[in-house]
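Note to self: keep these together.
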Amino acid sequence: MKSIKLLVAMLTGWLCTFSASAENDTQLIGFMETNSEWLDSADPTAAYGFYGFSPTGEGGFRALSPTGPDYAWANSGGTYANGKFYCYDVYGSWTQYTLTYRAIDATTWNVVDTKTFTYRYADKESEESQNAINIPTGIAYDPVSETIWAVTHAYSNTESCKLCRVDTETGRLIVVADLPAIRIAACDAQGTLYGIGLDSKLYTIAKNGTCTEIGSTGYWPSTDSELKTGATIDFRTGKMYWSCYGFASEEDRNWNVNAINALLEINTATAETKVLFGYNSGQRFSSLSVANAHPTAPDNITDLIYTPDASGEAKGVLSFTVPSVTFGQSPITGSIGMVVTLDGKILEERSATPGEKYSRTLEGLADGTHNVTVKLTANGHDGFVASTSFYVGAYSPDKVTDLTLTYDKDTDMAILTWSTPADANGGLVNTANLRYKIERMPEGIVVARSAKGNTFSEKVSFPWSTYYYRITPYSGAETGP
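Structure:
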């Protein structure tokens, strides 16, 4: 049921409008460790957790994982790899603290592995303390060597920086080499590891720790060792993103003024950096990731769709295009493994060719919602599973949309217009039996019981006061809101 209001004396209409924009291909996932809104609320409670957002900032920050004060999973950085987040957090003081490693399922958000290492100054040479001596400040996944790398520092300072390999079985940080003061790390689809130093410069980091300068980003990371900021590279586009808390000059950093709290994009070839959008509520992300598939896996399917038959019968066509490039945007050579499922059962399993136009007619579908998935495999790696859902059954009209009410002073008529409602279940729209009940409110006077089409008008010959109309669509026994 949909209502719109009109103040007759003012002769103005009420227009209900909706807007939408195309979603950016890249979706960032950051671990939010602070937000001024948490402190400004009536009940100040930290909502630590993983949040998704667009590089444009449009749509804001959307919680993906459970959030709350008990979810301080990644305040020392983390990265996404093969369906999991690998992350660290640290808690304590310089005399005793605990470094915790976690592996988290990126679909269920269940913690699937946890390891803890406690440093005790009184026993600092023990194996337990030595396993906790290096604190991650940047973590990155190398898809070529299937290695997770970490740049680290000593607790509570930015000295004793190391390049470490993360042992995902034990959670231990295995020192590979000494590093200069690198604070941020990210890896591209070719396995090149990048780091940003306290000197604002972007470096490539060889796996033996050798750092080669590319250039200055123009932004200086904070020297506060407790402030971690994440970075990542989109394997599909090669763009590097840094969730920055830093400064636009070394002088500003020295005086701790004019801090920059924003998402930055960095050109990895030149170090040229630009601000994409600022964090208005002081949000800070200690890790940043893109849910990358392996660079040699098939690229994403973007056009999976079920098109109902125009007859309205329980049949239709399932179609999509098999990608011709890998997730890393290189041409696919050879065949692609393809598995198509309908409602959890394999519908088709075979080899497909790059760029193939897939089409299959589905018939005899039962009433209800049906789910289709498509998984592609190439070069020994699975791409992301594409999925779609569709409904089969009688047309059940949803609420009417684009409702307007205008007044024609020449004819003294109130004129209603609206758009045909979609199916409430996402199914096929069938207007053959579609009718509308129209009531003039607040008296509830029925002015039309079975209106057809998308317009209605009547003489404005009632009291000069606020009134409105209520429209209820129905089709046979199916009544809409």
